Amino acid sequence: MEASSTDDATLAIDASTDEAETFFAAARETLGFFVELSRQLEFRRRLTVRATGFQLVDWNDERAAELERRLKGEEAELSDSQLSPMFKIKKMNPSERFILATKASRVERQILLRDTSPQVLLGLLQHPRIEPKEVIEILKSSFATGAVMEQVARNHKWMQNPEIPALIAKSPKTPQPLAIQLLEMLRTPDLRVMAKSTGLREGIRKAALKVYTKRIGKS
């Protein structure tokens, strides 16, 4: 789902119906969302949101007053327990977000999965109730590092999901020896794609081709 701003300060959300429904369901669960614009708008400039459907949920006089105080630059009067999880996390520094990541609620984890700090992603991987789909999101993050790939690869339970070793093996962040080591775990269709890929490191592509050729030769 992509959002873009135009010269007339219109925010256009380009998404399919399913993507939009998923996005707004997540926004409702976290009581808000952030949109990064390519340029800074003038203070108090009117911003129009154009989408298929949009509805404010649980809006009340208290939240309206808090928004007005924020616009005026005044100190917030709501306690942390009254703030949206998204705004509470936004106030934290990386160390605080890392600590939260190890024990975060499901809603908080959904916010932290988009964090720009690799340490926070590593913290999420230490969470005792993190789900495989969340691990997959971490592996797909542009902020995941080699350390993230290695930590996931050490978890036998996660590696039973066939999508996870494939993501690690394909990632440019993964140390090459580890990527090659994982090739035997990959499904044959994944190996075939990797063997033909021009975007992979040459050493990994050749290794994938070797494993793929050996496998189809046996069959």
Helix residue percentage: 40-55%
Biggest sheet: strand arrangement: 1-2-3
What string, H for helix and E for strand, traces the elements in order? EEHEHHHHHHHHHHH
Give start-end ranges of low-pLDDT stretches.
Answer: none
| DSSP strand content | 5-15%
Structural class call reads mainly alpha
Shape: elongated
Q: For the CA atoms, what is the radius of gyration?
A: 22 Å
What's the total count of β strands?
Answer: 3
Q: Provide mean pLDDT, rounded.
A: 81
Major β-sheet annotation: 3 strands, mixed
The helix tally amounts to 12
| Termini gap | 41 Å
Structure description:
With 219 residues, this protein is mainly alpha-helical. Helix 6 (118-125) packs parallel to helix 8 (146-153), helix 9 (163-170) packs antiparallel against helix 10 and helix 11 (188-196) packs across helix 12. The chain starts with a strand and ends with a helix. The protein has helices spanning 17-29, 61-71, 85-90, 94-101, 106-112, 118-125, 132-140, 146-153, 163-170, 176-182, 188-196, 202-218, and strands at residues 2-5, 10-14, 48-50. It has a 3-stranded mixed sheet with strand order 1-2-3, with no helix packed on it. A hairpin with a 4-residue loop joins strand 1 (2-5) and strand 2. The mean pLDDT is 81. The longest helix has 17 residues, at 202-218.
